Amino acid sequence: MSQVSSFVSFDRAAQNVTYIGDVEGDWNNFCNYVDHSRGLTFGMNEEQHESRRLPEHLELRLEDGWHFVFGGDAWDKGLGTLRVLDTMVRAKKHWPSRVHLLFGNRDLNRMGWIGELADRDVDTTPVKGLDLWGEHPDVNAAVDGEFECRRYELAQLQNVEVEEITDEDVRESYADCLKQGGYFSEYLERSQIAILLGDNLFVDGQVVALESMPGVDEDEERMRSWLEDLNDWARCKAAEQSLITSWDPAPSPPPPGERLSSTDDAEQGQYTVFISKSAHCSKLGLDTEARHSDVHLTIKNIHASGLIATWNSRHGSGAVKAGDKLISANGVSGMANNFKSVVTTGKHLNLLLQRAEYAK
């Protein structure tokens, strides 16, 4: 290796790189990536990804001679934000010179750094915390349903019913993430903006648009200097966060009956249902059908009792209706039979459905 520092900005000798970015808290998506990576595996096997909740289940194994680049945007939409952050930090601690955590476009926007990248000589000290979960003018849309996503993940990690996680538990989780030693604090401390491995530059496109980037083949030393300067600036900005004593408020729980979905999902008639099986009620209480080639399950009938009936009694406009299509379960989609088994065997279920009138 050309460097042994925990922050590598430039390594022309690197040959094998495995990369993923834009995970946005989607734990199943990240696990599926690991399953198909040539350079990265989990240290312990688990039949179902949602069962990975203990520390030893989050440990990765990086093959000799390989680098792992995580392209950022680790949180804010899915049901696995805490596990994604924890897994990334564990990997960085274990292989500091071969695991590289980058800031993505949403990271840079939400931290308000994009506006400062164009003039990095300006010394500004933050007066309040990062807007990681509310609507930001530089972000296209607010993050809907994040409060309930965090509640769901806490239930999974603690192996309890979703109803046992209170609003205050969720708020405390956000606050704990930002404290010294918290999930996000640890992740922020170990992240950088850019890295060159072999002939491949890994950096968010917004940075390239704002910065005067040298060509690596034209001036290698200038490229090295540019990368190190950019990453040094980012680490200084990250260090400033430890001075913050007043943070933006955590998300608020949604009003009863509010549909938990993003703006894009809502435009397609999609909505989300969170349910948790228990000893006294483990049946969804619905009938479905699917043709062999279908990529969804069609809801044919909803029983008077069951988890779906209970959900419907509490969620008004977000109630499941006959004719709606079930299109994924816990992030698993594709052929209907692929996720039907998840619905049958999973204890905590995040179901993505689509209204009948929007389905093709």
Walk me through the structure.
Helix content is 32%, strand content 17%. The chain has 360 residues and is of the alpha/beta class. It has helices spanning 27-36, 81-94, 105-110, 114-117, 146-158, 167-178, 183-189, 205-210, 220-240, 263-267, 307-314, 336-345, and strands at 10-11, 16-20, 40-42, 60-62, 66-70, 99-102, 191-192, 194-197, 200-203, 270-276, 286-289, 297-302, 325-329, 348-354. It has a 5-stranded antiparallel β-sheet, sandwiched between helices. The protein has a 4-stranded parallel β-sheet with strand order 2-5-6-7. It has 12 helices and 14 strands. Helix 2 packs across helix 7 (183-189) and helix 5 (146-158) packs across helix 6. The relative contact order is 0.12. Residues 1-5, 121-143 and 257-263 have low confidence and may be disordered. Strand 11 and strand 12 form a beta hairpin.
Annotate the secondary structure layout:
Layout: E1 10-11, E2 16-20, H1 27-36, E3 40-42, E4 60-62, E5 66-70, H2 81-94, E6 99-102, H3 105-110, H4 114-117, H5 146-158, H6 167-178, H7 183-189, E7 191-192, E8 194-197, E9 200-203, H8 205-210, H9 220-240, H10 263-267, E10 270-276, E11 286-289, E12 297-302, H11 307-314, E13 325-329, H12 336-345, E14 348-354
Helix pairs in contact: 2-7, 5-6
Radius of gyration: 22 Å
Beta-strand percentage range: 15-25%
What is the number of beta strands?
14
Strand arrangement across the biggest beta sheet? 10-14-13-12-11
Q: Output mean pLDDT.
A: 79
Keywords:
disordered N terminus, elongated, 360 residues, 32% helix, 14 strands
